[in-house]
Amino acid sequence: MTPEQFLEFARPLPEPMFLVTSSGQILAANLSLTKILGLNRQIIQEKTLFEVFSDPADKIKQYLRACSSSREMVIGSLTLNNNGETYLYRCEGAVIRPWSPESPALILLRFKNRESASSRFTLLNKKIDELAKEIRQRQLAEEERAKLLVQEQKARAEAEKLNRLKDEFLSNVSHELRTPLNAILGWSQLLRTRETDEVTRNRALETIERNARSQAQLIDDLLDISRIITGKIRLNVQTIQLLSVIEAAIDTVRPAADAKSIRIQSVLDPAAGPVLGDHERLQQIVWNLLSNAIKFTPKHGRVQVYLQRINSHIEIVVTDTGQGISSEFLPYVFERFRQADISITRSFGGLGLGLAIVRQLVELHGGTVHAESPGPGQGATFTVKLPLMAVRATVIEPERVHPVVGGSVPFNCSSQLDQLKILIVDDDPDMRDLLIYTIEVCGAEVIAAASANEAILLLSESSPPFDILISDIGMPDQDGYALLRRVRRLEPQRGGKIPAIALTAYARTQDRTAALLAGFQSHIAKPVEPAELIAVIANLAGRIRDI
Q1: How much is the pTM?
Q2: Does residue 527 have a cis peptide bond before it, meaning omega lies within 30 degrees of 0?
Q3: Residue 511: how many CA atoms within 13 Å on its side-chain side?
Q4: CATH number for the domain whose boundaries are 238-387
Q5: What contacts 276, CB < 8 A, 6 or more positions away?
Q6: pLDDT digit string, tens, across residues 210-247
Q7: Around 323, how many Cα atoms within 13 Å sit in the side-chain half-sphere?
Q8: Where is the PTM 4-aspartylphosphate found along the chain (predicted)?
Q9: At the topology level of CATH, where does 158-230 sit?
Q10: What confidence tens digit (pLDDT) does each residue in 176-205 have?
Q11: What CATH topology corresponds to 421-540?
Q12: How far apart are CA 240 and CA 275, in angstroms?
């Protein structure tokens, strides 16, 4: 309560009122009191209670101590100097919040002439109660406004930070996608426009494939983080032995390690025990940690992997001799879109999603992950803790590798498609050319359509009928779902029951589900491995060979 606040409330009230400190200094007086004292407000505010009242100083000090220390209302009487009249007063001490360090307590004194006090003191108390209540309400409102202001400032700072991170992330996405695209386009143009020897041609094709896989990996990471954020990622939970998971991940990253002469050392306890989890996602966790370690470890460095059981959980530890992590960045190492170096001169690429995906996948498995590093240039250690299964069960160990980085499957047309007639529907001419060449190499007759209407016309007029339909999903005018609905309304002899494959860049789990529910027998995500495509076609056509 400030003197200004006091005057705002006390000015219209008929009873004389003081606002004083616990030491007796007068801070403010209302108009009624200035009239009684016969002094103007400025002169009164330069005085103390000891100068205004004729009572002994000890008595006034006693009243002041009682007022400032008590949480109850204190009532007493004081006599004015100028007319010798005695007035009853009521004061509030601890109820009034201090307003400055110099005023440890503010005391509100309310006076009434003794002769008329007895009949109106109840009313006086009521008015003081209302005044104190209003003051307290205003103080609470001010405190609430101050809190809201702080919250608003924090929210604004966080929004600005997120906007900055978003801009940096979009810039990184553009850079990381354009870099491999440059190599793909550059080598493609050279192969198309110039004669090259076999060595150069093989080098160009390897570069194109490597950069295409790099782009596919970036897209996979973006899709994974999108699924995680929206809560749409699903785990195929089984009983898993982590030994095979880690060994498969090591095999996947070994070529990258060998290229930098990095030694991968593993200490894996085969009796560590099983966990419940998704084999592919667990392998993705280990692969991401190993790839991260190899990426930030210089040539001739070392990466170590440990698998061990600690009490009721299993630990996977990946440690390296790489560039390490600063103490400032360590708390943010698992946040998505965060990178220690975001400058255009940075030495390492990437989107800053790998470790964020690791943390989310580990937590989906009921585990935790944390990072440690002594500092820059001193390596880093990442520890994943997963709960051990309480009861042992039959362990399923499907052989799965990372879909993008696991290497391509050799394409040798092991499944022959002779005498099959296949209809391809895709609005992208380059994709149509690729599919036609890939499938015709294996002996099938291929006809391509660029739209749903063209496909329906070809199906209706074809003789003999087509054996397989391969359709894109995202197409102008009518998408693949609409096309298949039209196909299924055709008579059987005109292709109404033709087996159909959805070949699409819509690669989420819900996209696969939607394709199967729409009537497709199979769903293949782009980019597709030629060997996988031929195997799916052979399977639908009943051309399964003995292995």
Answers
A1: 0.45
A2: yes
A3: 17
A4: 3.30.565.10
A5: 237, 238, 239, 240, 365, 387, 389
A6: 778 777 777 777 777 777 766 667 778 888 889 989 99
A7: 12
A8: 472
A9: Helix Hairpins (1.10.287)
A10: 666 677 678 777 877 887 787 888 888 888
A11: Rossmann fold (3.40.50)
A12: 5
